[in-house]
């Protein structure tokens, strides 16, 4: 049969993601923005998500903390109090009004925290009692950085409560109106601290073998699927990313074990997860992340293809996607969906920009002020009779300025400055 233009997948063609009909394959990647005052979503977040919504588009929220013990950054939103749920509703309503679908990313940072973020100054929790090495530091509420501390190693008896926190957070997210949830099993946070043998030094049923290290993420996925339905659950992993010391000696098979568990879950449930989201090995975060053993482009492609072929469902990739790389990934069948991070921060109109063959959007500068406000400078495309115009825009909502964070989309620098209140 001859493949027609309509049938050939492209970055701009529709896709059926389980329950959800998407009009294109460009997804907003989950990105921490530190603008939820004391964990509560603010109006600037309503604006941020609405700006990036398109009819039939798909957005994943910033990492959203599932319990008070899950915090490790200033002013990251939660989804465990009535007030947080009510304020998230405003974000979700604004996104839905623009015709987009939005999932809430469920996050627990584990040991990537500090007693300052924990009730009663307690130690953060983890799979281990070893601190993150000195190459990483924790951003404190006042904008300074602190050394990582020794965490409390979760006992087996404490694990059911952790699973219950993910389950309840998923229920809360659905009650806030989110269309689904993404379980954050990536980038060195709690679930990844169980997955990686560079961190997990346990000798009980949650440590040692690949199956044991994958047990917690599997149990969390089962519990969340049972609560809200597999078709409203996405899972994110990053087997090759070593952010926050999350090294593994065998990332290929670690990924395959998680994937096989997902396939089995799907078979038993008779339903697929919404998607599996994998971070490309080439992603680096602020110079803290180094490529793993799949660092060269051919090996990287091979490992991503192996996981893609093994997973029986929708496959999403993330990490330094340009326009060309996104088009290539979809047209070659390497991915069903591509999530864009930094380019979407600095280009709220990224979907239109990419579809219009606009130049690669690398010029934009984003300055955001943590807590409640933000100043964003970016370019917006406008279609005019004389052609496509690429115009600078200025968006400002400053209410309170204790911490200034500057992020450029091209240089990938992220740094924090303390500003006099
Ligand atoms: C400022 C910033 C915050 C991020 N926060 C999160 C997060 O909360 N959860 C997550 O899974 N990934 C997070 N990421 C990773 C992004 O989802 C994405 O995978 C990464 O930026 C690579 O895509 P890009 O090269 O298109 O930016 C963050 C990245 C950036 C730059």
From TrEMBL:
GO biological processes: jasmonic acid biosynthetic process; oxylipin biosynthetic process
UniProt GO molecular function: 12-oxophytodienoate reductase activity; FMN binding
Family designation: Belongs to the NADH:flavin oxidoreductase/NADH oxidase family.
Annotated Gene Ontology cellular component terms: cytosol; peroxisome
Residue intervals of the NADH:flavin oxidoreductase/NADH oxidase N-terminal domain: 10-354
Keyword set includes Lipid biosynthesis: yes
Cofactor(s) recorded in Swiss-Prot or TrEMBL: FMN
Protein name: NADH:flavin oxidoreductase/NADH oxidase N-terminal domain-containing protein
TM stretches of this protein: 364-381
Organism, scientific name: Rhynchospora tenuis
Keywords: Fatty acid biosynthesis, Fatty acid metabolism, Flavoprotein, FMN, Lipid biosynthesis, Lipid metabolism, Membrane, NADP, Oxidoreductase, Oxylipin biosynthesis, Transmembrane, Transmembrane helix
SUPFAM superfamilies: FMN-linked oxidoreductases
Origin: domain of life: Eukaryota
Keyword Thylakoid attributed: no
